[in-house]
Backbone:
RNA sequence: GCCUCGGUGGCGGAACUGGUAGACGCGCUGGAUUCAAAAUCCAGUUCUUUCGGGAGUGUGGGUUCGAUUCCCACCCGAGGUACCA
């Protein structure tokens, strides 16, 4: 009886889809376990062999947990709003919903054929109105909240309004815009309704602001910082410029400290935590205000080195700093203007790429040093960023390399304020070894002491205080795109935003003729003819009806890609609930994700925003946990193994790899499907694929054409993409699952090489054969030893996410049991359960053939019993000076002294020693004997 | 530059708290079976060797009876980040 994987896999996939054994229930006596793999964006290209890696690992874990008696939630869905579908719509006119649907179908087929135990009843799609209703709902909750620093949490905005009514805002410590005015309760009461709304916008956790944003002209939208890589858009690699626009913003900065602190409470990979830490960029220091001489102005600076304040020999402002125009002297005006003009022409990318060139201009103005009262010249320079801190620095050339370089370049004084340090060549930046000198009351103090002291003194003067600064900026939440969640917002007669009431959600995406921005430069939703909100009927109506009395224009922007993915893990808990984002019972039961698996590329995007939303939901009592995922694993990338042929530059010859040397050649990618396990090229196939190279002369070696191989990212353009469909067709899903795991540690990146799959495939065939003559015989001790050794190792491996070593363990087990000619049902049943998380189809089939009528997925995991592994003797390695010389079988219960006697009496020991007396004999019972001397 | 992770046969990789380096698989070599091939099975496969042995986990040092494992310095590769004051 052959192992017919095609028949078996089709049979069980159908059965699982009909009988739904993986349906999770929200109420169970069993302990819960929530395994989640990051949901995919359904791209048109479908899955390649690298994509399922994390899904397979998650599926193995989910299946294992079911065997262990847990009620497992293991859902899957689609992050189905996004740019590619919209770009495609722009090109072809096809509605993104349509292409997205097609792509999802294709994804589902591919996922289904891999045998995942997803609970498809819980599928979510971010582009589905029943889903984005709740994305809009969370947005409204954010809008209706402010952040109270005193209790360090988000509170309802109504609570802030009552405070304003009784005490104004002077006693309130809130996260708000910098330009928020002070007002009393009486003043508040006299504000117009519109002014009240404007004030509240300065406090809301999502708010409208004129922000400097990253505008990508090619994509016609703004981008968040994490969507820009090396100064160009992450998608498409288009240039990005700075532009001031009115945008929805998320006040994520309110959570900066908690996002940092929370990292200590979750089991996430260190590199991921590090990149979030860097992204948040906390720095501790002081803010200092410098008075500007002969102007009524102060310059606020933030510094992490207030201890070096006596070394400040100039100040530098960002060219965009608002004071520049005001304080520049008439003599310097021409130079300053020219400099500002020049920097504004340089793109962000230029400025980033070129960090070597030092440039700047003197404003002609002077600040006053807070302590010495000496004049400090004020410069502008583009090395100071407008967007960080206050856009101004106190420049201490002896203590900061950039200030040092700037001072050297422009011939500015470099006073030395460090004890026993030479600054002739470079600045001294070593905080830990700093002793301050030439600094009045700070002399002789170290960094910590001096910092504390100077902050005290600044506070006395009223010119500064200790401050913590974060690099993290509030997140731009508007996108000028069509294919995203519409904001549940209309603009009233004052042009102020108003939220739709919860009961009118979802606000559905309108139909448009074109997916491009309008002629007037409005976002694509500006093309919609019916995109106005009638406040009497609470429906979307034609734009013609807009009267700004009852009918108002709706927001034209849509939400960014990360909106939908910031709460999907919670929505899975109760995905069909139409009354609430999820029921209280559901979230009380599932609480949070126990295991989250996904790529590390989401470190500063999805994973940071989701943590922010979760903390917010927690503050507002909507979620019971303030971190959504306890443990997270980043699966490594599967890279491709590209194949090359070598075309001679001077002739029409194409060389096999071994014949290249000495010839000038151009390597040309060959599609990996034409290459076999021994790196031989199917030349005829290749010629058909590349007709332009069909008439070339192919120079073979030993009758074969051998390709060169190189590991590269798996991509269409490198012709190294391997499709899982083809693998499933040829070897089956179980083989693919095993092989993906067998490649190496889950978290490492590793190259794909289809050739190796024959190993796991023949393992499955051997496994299958074992079950052809199952009998009721009692297992021997040897059988049980093999089995229990395997149970122990596999269980440990799964718990450590070391799936590659389990596969090796299965192979060893099957090899041993085959050699033992064991066909005992007791052993084989256990083995089938062990294998089933990895290769579920074959396991189900074998299980059924052994007479079971219920799914193996519900069977209890075999219990490991130590007693079968107890050995009576040990083959001791006997080494001399740490080098193994021979082995000696001795009883395990033999004592140290007896072992030494037995070893010393052995003839091979005498041979080794050749009459010498050993200096020392190390005996570690049960481990090793080492003879020294 | 900084942060993080990694470096072991021809290849992917294994080695628990320091204790027999190279498990398992691919590939390769030889053999069996076959008219032949596929498939399957058996044996071998770190390098070197005068067949006794010798060397060996990126490099150099250190700790130890003993180091792939711990410590120091360096080299290389991958990822992240970068005028962040």
Residues:
């Amino acid at each position: 009886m052959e192992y017919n994987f095609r028949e078996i896999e089709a049979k069980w996939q159908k059965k699982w889809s009909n009988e739904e054994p993986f349906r999770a229930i929200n109420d169970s006596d069993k302990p819960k376990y929530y395994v989640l793999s990051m949901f995919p964006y359904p791209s048109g290209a479908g899955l390649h062999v690298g994509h399922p890696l994390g899904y397979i690992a998650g599926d193995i874990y989910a299946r294992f947990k079911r065997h262990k008696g847990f009620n497992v939630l293991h859902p899957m869905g689609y992050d189905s709003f996004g740019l590619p579908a919209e770009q495609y719509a722009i090109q072809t006119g096809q509605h993104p919903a349509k292409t997205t649907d097609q792509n999802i179908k294709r994804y589902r087929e591919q996922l289904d054929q891999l045998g995942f135990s997803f609970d498809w009843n819980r599928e979510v799609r971010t582009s589905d109105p029943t889903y984005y209703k709740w994305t809009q709902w969370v947005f409204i909750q954010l809008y209706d909240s402010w952040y109270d620093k005193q209790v360090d949490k988000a509170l309802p905005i109504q609570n802030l309004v009552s405070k304003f009514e009784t005490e104004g805002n002077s006693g309130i410590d809130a996260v708000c815009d910098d330009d928020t005015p002070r007002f009393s309760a009486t003043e508040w009461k006299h504000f117009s309704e519109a002014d009240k709304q404007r004030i509240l916008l300065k406090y809301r956790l999502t708010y409208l602001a004129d922000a400097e944003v990253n505008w990508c002209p090619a994509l016609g939208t703004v981008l968040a910082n994490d969507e820009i890589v090396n100064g160009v858009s992450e998608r498409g690699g288009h240039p990005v410029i700075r532009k001031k626009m009115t945008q929805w913003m998320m006040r994520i900065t309110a959570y900066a400290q908690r996002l940092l602190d929370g990292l200590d409470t979750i089991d996430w990979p260190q590199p991921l935590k590090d990149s979030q830490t860097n992204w948040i960029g906390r720095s501790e220091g002081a803010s200092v205000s410098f008075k500007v001489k002969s102007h009524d102005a102060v310059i606020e600076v933030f510094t992490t080195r207030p201890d070096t304040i006596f070394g400040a020999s100039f100040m530098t402002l960002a060219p965009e700093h608002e004071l520049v125009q005001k304080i520049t002297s008439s003599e310097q005006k021409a130079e300053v203007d020219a400099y500002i003009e020049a920097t504004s022409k340089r793109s962000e990318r230029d400025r980033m790429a070129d960090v070597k060139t030092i440039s700047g201009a003197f404003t002609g103005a002077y600040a006053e040093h807070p302590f010495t009262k000496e004049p400090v010249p004020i410069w502008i320079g583009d090395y100071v960023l407008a967007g960080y801190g206050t856009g101004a620095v106190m420049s201490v050339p002896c203590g900061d390399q950039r200030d040092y370089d700037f001072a050297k370049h422009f011939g500015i004084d470099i006073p030395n304020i460090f004890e026993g340090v030479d600054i002739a060549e470079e600045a001294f930046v070593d905080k830990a070894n700093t002793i301050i000198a030439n600094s009045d009351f700070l002399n002789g103090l170290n960094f910590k002491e001096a910092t504390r002291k100077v902050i005290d003194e600044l506070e006395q003067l009223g010119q500064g205080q200790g401050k913590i600064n974060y690099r993290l900026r509030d997140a731009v939440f508007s996108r000028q795109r069509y294919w995203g969640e519409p904001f549940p917002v209309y603009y009233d007669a004052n042009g102020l935003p108003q939220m739709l009431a919860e009961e009118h959600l979802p606000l559905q995406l309108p139909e448009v003729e074109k997916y491009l921005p309008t002629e007037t430069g409005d976002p694509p939703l500006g093309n919609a003819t019916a995109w106005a909100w009638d406040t009497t009927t609470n429906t979307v109506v034609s734009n013609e009806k807009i009267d700004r009395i009852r009918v108002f224009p709706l927001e034209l922007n849509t939400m960014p890609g990360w909106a939908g993915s910031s709460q999907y893990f919670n929505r899975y808990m109760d995905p069909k609930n139409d009354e609430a984002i999820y029921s209280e019972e559901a979230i009380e039961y599932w609480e949070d994700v126990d295991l989250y698996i996904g790529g590390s590329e989401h470190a500063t995007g999805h994973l940071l925003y989701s943590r922010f939303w979760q903390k917010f939901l927690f503050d507002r009592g909507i979620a019971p946990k303030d971190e959504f995922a306890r443990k997270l694993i980043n699966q490594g990338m599967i890279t491709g193994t590209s194949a090359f042929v070598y075309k001679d530059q001077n002739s029409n010859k194409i060389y096999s790899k071994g014949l290249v040397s000495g010839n000038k050649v151009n390597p040309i990618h060959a599609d990996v499907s034409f290459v076999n396990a021994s790196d031989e090229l199917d030349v005829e196939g290749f010629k058909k694929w590349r007709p332009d190279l069909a008439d070339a002369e192919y120079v073979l070696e030993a009758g074969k054409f051998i390709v060169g191989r190189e590991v590269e990212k798996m991509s269409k353009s490198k012709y190294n993409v391997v499709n899982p469909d083809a693998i499933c067709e040829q070897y089956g899903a179980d083989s693919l699952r095993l092989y993906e795991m067998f490649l190496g540690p889950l978290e490492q990146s590793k190259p794909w090489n289809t050739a190796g799959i024959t190993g796991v495939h023949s393992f499955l065939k051997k496994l299958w054969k074992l079950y052809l003559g199952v009998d009721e015989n009692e297992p021997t001790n040897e059988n049980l030893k093999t089995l229990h050794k395997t149970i122990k190792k596999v269980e440990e491996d799964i718990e450590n996410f070391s799936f590659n070593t389990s596969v090796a363990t299965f192979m060893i087990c099957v090899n041993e049991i085959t050699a033992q000619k064991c066909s005992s049902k007791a052993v084989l049943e256990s083995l089938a359960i062990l294998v089933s998380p990895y290769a579920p189809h074959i396991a189900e089939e074998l299980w059924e053939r052994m007479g079971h009528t219920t799914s193996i997925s519900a069977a209890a995991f075999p219990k490991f019993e130590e007693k079968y592994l107890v050995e009576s003797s040990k083959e001791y390695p006997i080494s001399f000076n740490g080098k193994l010389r021979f082995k000696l079988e001795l009883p395990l219960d033999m004592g140290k002294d007896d072992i030494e006697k037995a070893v010393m009496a052995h003839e091979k020991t005498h041979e080794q020693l050749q009459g010498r007396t050993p200096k020392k004999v190390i005996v570690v019972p049960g481990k090793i004997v080492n003879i020294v001397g």
Notes: DSSP finds 29 helices and 34 strands in chain A. The radius of gyration of chain A is 35 Å. Residues 781-799 of chain A form the longest helix (19 residues).
